[in-house]
Amino acid sequence: MVAREPKTKKETKLPMLLIIIIAFLAIGGSIGGTLIANKFLSVRETKTTKEHTTSSGKISEDEVIVTMDEFLVNLAQGKSNKQQYIRVKMSLLTNDSKDSENLTKNIAVARDSVVNILRQKKSEDILSTADSVTNLKKQLKEAINTEYGTAIVKEVFITDLVIQ
Predict the structure, then answer these.
(1) Could you give the CA distance from residue 31 to residue 23 in angstroms, rounded to a whole number?
(2) Contact 68, 107 (CB under 8 A)
(3) Is the pTM of this model over 0.70?
(4) How far is Cα 154 from Cα 101, in angstroms, rounded to an integer?
(5) The pLDDT value given to residue 50
């Protein structure tokens, strides 16, 4: 029989050291690749978003969105003769920060206008056609602007709408 030579400590540590080095390189490469990819992708998404916002003409840098508290209002009784409620969350687009401050300072005027319009509506009025919500938004905008005596609100955004 051939006698085997005992392995030295260097020979047993070398494969283990290679495995550890490869593992660190793999982990480091994946983390580095993720960070680099996220940096380039987020810059590209930001540029696309800015281009889309400014090209659509929807909201300019001067305009300000004012978020209003939730409304919970009784609706007028419709054909079903059941008492129904509407819960609405909305935001108002103003021309600039001056209008935004004025609207925020006198938010009770806007809230009163919204409640008065909603209390006159039946659920059928709001849900009957595809344009019903669009018409409601126009009515809310006109009512708020009438109460303020100026075109303080450019657009109404309904962010949540539930009728029960």
Answers:
(1) 12
(2) yes
(3) no
(4) 15
(5) 46
